[in-house]
């Protein structure tokens, strides 16, 4: 897990003469690895420095983690005060926890609808986290056709795949579609909790339903990398 | 993260049974001066990289370089785990990559300066041997070359 990796890297950096301070999200792992100085925080996976746009909380975390430099004990593992926020589970809600409901649009049409909301987000925020596949969002209907062909047993290629192995490229495409939906949702339902957004995604969209099918097809493959990447599509 | 007891059983069991490196003590380096004069850089295991960089693959122990001038619009996240919700990163990269918060600390003279580069790897690795034996020493060399004194490490 990520806190494990952080612990391993922190020790190596310190051996090389660099002073390290680390944040941990899994206290039990960090207590075993013993990085030189670590602060365990009680936040959900994905936000070790604090909640989005909560500058005061993020500053408090940084104050605490840099404060470890003055700790008398060594190695040091301290706890940041606080607990999960209301409605937070600590981890992202997965497909298996949500019952899919009937969806209103075919997937390609739904993607087109979401892209219109996404364009609003992109313009308003001045950025987008869509991009790991290298396919521009105006071509996402083509991504849908590519993924649907794969599920149907057809071999197709998109030029953006380049030399990327097919299982990874499929995951990057799925990631980009998912992120486009999440950014669209920030426009559709501003202020919605992350948990409710995930319930909507897995329970109320054609993409959520399709990703389950895509995962199942990948899991049926003889290719170990394909099966491994399925775990990053839907759980 | 919440305490493990708060997680769904399947995830709690997965974390508790994960092979984790165990150590008795820790290596210790010394800071030559106060933090207010130190150069700080971030190393994150959040699988972040600049747009146009090769995304992280599965069980990928390599690293990516993020120039310290990069802003939120330049960054993508190709981490393979579904355990975390990317919505937080989408809204505010500082949740895991606190570049704006570090800039504030520099402006307030709480830290000396930010190094010329930050670095990113992908966590959620089942086997951390390549990370420990190859990637981390390579990162150490680069950070020393960058003149970095203090490294802030963040997971995701």
Brief sketch in words of this structure:
The complex is a heterodimer of chains A (235) and B (156). With 235 residues, chain A is mainly alpha-helical. Chain A is 51% helix and 6% strand.
Q: What would you say this structure looks like, in words?
A:
The complex is a heterodimer of chains A (235) and B (156). Chain A is mainly alpha-helical. Chain A has two domains: 2-79, no CATH class; 95-230, no CATH class. Chain A has helices spanning 2-15, 27-33, 55-67, 107-125, 140-151, 166-188, 194-204, 206-219, 224-230; strands spanning 19-24, 37-40, 76-79. A three-stranded parallel sheet of chain A has the order 1-2-3, with helices on both faces. In chain A, α3 links the parallel β2 and β3. The longest helix of chain A has 23 residues, at 166-188. Chain A is globular. Chain B has one domain (34-154). In chain B, strands 1, 3, 5, 6 and 7 form a five-stranded mixed sheet that branches. Chain B has a two-stranded antiparallel sheet with strand order 2-4. The mean pLDDT of chain B is 91. The interface between A and B is large, with 94 and 88 residues. β1 (19-24) of chain A pairs parallel with β7 of chain B.
Task: List the SSEs and their pairings.
The complex is a heterodimer of chains A (235) and B (156).
Chain A: H1 2-15, E1 19-24, H2 27-33, E2 37-40, H3 55-67, E3 76-79, H4 107-125, H5 140-151, H6 166-188, H7 194-204, H8 206-219, H9 224-230
Parallel strand pairs in A: 1-2, 2-3
Chain B: H1 9-17, E1 39-44, E2 48-50, E3 64-67, E4 75-77, H2 87-91, H3 99-107, E5 113-114, E6 117-120, H4 129-145, E7 150-154
Parallel strand pairs in B: 1-5, 1-6, 1-7
Antiparallel strand pairs in B: 2-4, 3-6
């Amino acid at each position: 897990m990520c806190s494990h990796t952080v612990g391993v890297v922190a020790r190596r950096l310190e051996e090389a003469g660099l002073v390290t301070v680390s944040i941990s999200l899994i206290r039990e792992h960090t207590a075993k690895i013993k990085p030189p100085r670590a602060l365990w925080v009680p936040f959900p996976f994905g936000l070790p420095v604090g909640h989005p746009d909560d500058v005061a909380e993020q500053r408090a975390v940084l104050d605490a983690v840099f404060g470890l430099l003055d700790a008398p004990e060594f190695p040091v593992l301290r706890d940041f005060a606080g607990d999960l926020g209301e409605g937070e589970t600590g981890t992202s809600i997965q497909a298996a926890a949500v019952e899919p409901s009937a969806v209103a649009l075919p997937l390609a049409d739904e993607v087109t609808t979401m892209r219109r909301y996404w364009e609003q987000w992109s313009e308003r925020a001045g950025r987008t986290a869509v991009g790991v596949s290298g396919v521009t969002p105006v071509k996402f209907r083509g991504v849908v056709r590519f993924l649907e062909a794969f599920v149907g047993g057809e071999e197709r290629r998109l030029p953006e795949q380049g030399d990327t192995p097919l299982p990874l490229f499929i995951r990057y495409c799925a990631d980009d579609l998912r992120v486009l939906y999440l950014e669209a949702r920030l426009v559709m339902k501003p202020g919605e909790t992350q948990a409710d957004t995930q319930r909507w995604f897995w329970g109320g969209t054609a993409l959520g339903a399709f990703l389950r099918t895509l995962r199942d097809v990948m899991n049926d493959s003889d290719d170990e990398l394909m099966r491994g990447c399925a775990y990053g599509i839907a759980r | 993260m919440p305490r493990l007891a708060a997680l769904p059983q399947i995830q709690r069991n997965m974390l508790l049974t994960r092979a984790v490196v165990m150590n008795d003590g820790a290596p210790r380096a010394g800071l030559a001066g106060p933090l207010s004069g130190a150069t700080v850089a971030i190393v994150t295991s959040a699988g972040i990289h600049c747009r146009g960089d090769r995304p992280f693959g599965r069980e990928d122990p390599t690293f990516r370089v993020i120039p310290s001038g990069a802003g939120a619009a330049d960054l993508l996240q190709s981490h393979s785990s579904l355990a975390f919700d990317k919505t937080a990163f989408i809204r505010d990269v500082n949740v895991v990559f606190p570049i704006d918060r570090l800039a504030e600390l520099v402006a307030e003279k709480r830290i000396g300066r930010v190094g010329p580069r930050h670095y990113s790897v992908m966590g959620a690795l089942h086997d951390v041997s390549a990370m420990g034996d190859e990637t981390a020493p390579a990162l150490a060399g680069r950070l020393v070359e960058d003149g970095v004194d203090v490294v802030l490490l963040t997971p995701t």
